[in-house]
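hey
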């Protein structure tokens, strides 16, 4: 069974080891943009989301693993 995860703009994004990464800024197909204060935003694939509940997105990757998991922005 395939589970659909629904993200909401403004939801807090947390790594698998509990570190705050930023907030969901934009959602486009199979990826979403993480907004960070005073740092560049970046895109992540939905496949790295463990679950999303009550305004929080929990990732499966640790904070250290997130850097290698970044993906390109969707084509417009």
């Amino acid at each position: 069974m395939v589970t659909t995860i629904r993200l909401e703009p403004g939801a807090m994004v947390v790594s698998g080891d509990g570190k705050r990464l930023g907030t969901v800024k934009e959602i486009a197909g199979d990826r979403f943009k993480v907004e960070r204060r005073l740092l560049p935003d970046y895109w992540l694939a939905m496949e790295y989301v463990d679950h999303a509940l009550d305004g929080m997105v929990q990732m499966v990757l640790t904070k250290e693993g997130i850097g290698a998991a970044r993906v390109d922005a969707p084509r417009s």
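The CA atoms of residues 13 and 57 lie 5 Å apart. The beta strands are 12-14, 20-28, 31-35, 42-45, 49-53, 56-59, 70-71.
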